[in-house]
Design goal:
Blueprint: H1 5-16, E1 20-26, H2 32-44, E2 50-53, H3 64-75, H4 80-93, E3 99-103, H5 105-111, H6 113-122, E4 127-130, H7 139-148, E5 151-153, E6 155-156, H8 162-171, E7 176-179, H9 196-204, E8 210-213, H10 219-228, E9 232-235, H11 237-245, H12 250-266
Parallel strand pairs: 1-2, 1-9, 2-3, 3-4, 4-5, 6-7, 7-8, 8-9
Helix pairs in contact: 2-4, 2-12, 5-6, 6-7, 11-12
């Protein structure tokens, strides 16, 4: 089996004693061309991988900042077809960067599960996380992911029991999405104290490296996550809020994002 982009990334970061910094943005926010410039900026200034959303009108796991980003993209006419086109452009420009999608089941099922994963594979996407499908209901999605060589990503809560952890370790690949706190996404809500024992349980079960999401907005959050045993972090609302704050000035938007990414990436470097 060939080495995946995630495996290459984690090995490279481990050799440098760094954690992964992964920003999240919604494809097409605030428009397709600006979004592509945003993604270039994120990668050029230190993002190790990308987590990208396809705009959806009922993003139940997301807080208001990311929901508004989805609405902006939808109001601008962005469709899944546009997203596949964008993803192909991103991959052509950044061939080695792991790219994950965070989507909702309705988007996948409406298109037809196997057709959705086929399109994701044609866009050379590395992973898909279906946010509102628990591990116990994931068989159809995992089958389609396996058939297309895409890593299925699963969310694990801090209070997940051993049975759930073992099942996520068995079926998940790429990385494991570890919730930094309960509820929906949002940079205005603090990450909970992370227990090292939960990361140890995932590692003992053979799960893919744990990446902490939800509530990551400061370098201190990153240092705490890595100290607890995480392999990296995802920053969603904190990234998207910068886009929202600079909708009228694309240059200022990219400059602010560059500063943010450099600051956050610096915090992943272990002393």
């Amino acid at each position: 089996m060939k080495t995946t982009r995630y495996e290459t990334m984690f090995a490279h970061l481990q050799a440098k004693k760094e954690g992964a910094f992964i920003p999240f943005v919604v494809l097409g926010d605030p428009d397709a061309e600006t979004c592509l410039s945003v993604i270039d900026t994120l990668i050029e200034h230190g993002a190790d991988a990308l987590e990208l959303g396809i705009p959806f009108s009922d993003a139940v796991a997301d807080g208001p900042v990311i929901q508004q980003a989805g609405y902006r993209a939808l109001e601008g006419g962005v469709t899944p077809t546009h997203c596949w086109q964008m993803l192909k452009r991103i991959r052509a420009k950044h061939p080695d960067v792991p790219i994950g999608l965070l989507v909702y089941a309705n988007l996948v099922v409406h298109r037809d599960v196997k057709a959705f994963y086929k399109e994701a594979a044609e866009a050379d996407v590395d992973s898909v996380l279906v946010a509102d499908v628990p591990i116990g209901a994931s068989a159809l999605f995992v089958e389609a992911a396996d058939e297309t060589g895409i890593a299925p990503i699963f969310i694990v809560a801090p209070n997940a029991d051993e049975t759930v952890i073992r099942e996520i370790a068995r079926q998940g690949r790429g990385y494991t999405y570890f919730l930094g706190r309960a509820g929906v996404t949002g940079a205005d809500r603090e990450m909970q104290t992370l227990l090292s024992s939960r990361f140890e349980a995932l590692q003992a079960a053979g799960a893919a490296p744990a990446i902490v999401g939800f509530g990551i907005s400061t370098p201190e959050h990153i240092r705490a996550a890595l100290a607890a045993g995480a392999a990296g972090v995802i920053a969603g609302s904190a990234t998207v809020s910068i886009i929202e704050q600079h909708l009228d000035d694309k240059a200022a938007m990219c400059e602010a994002l560059a500063t943010f990414v450099r600051k956050m990436k610096a915090a992943t470097r272990r002393s």
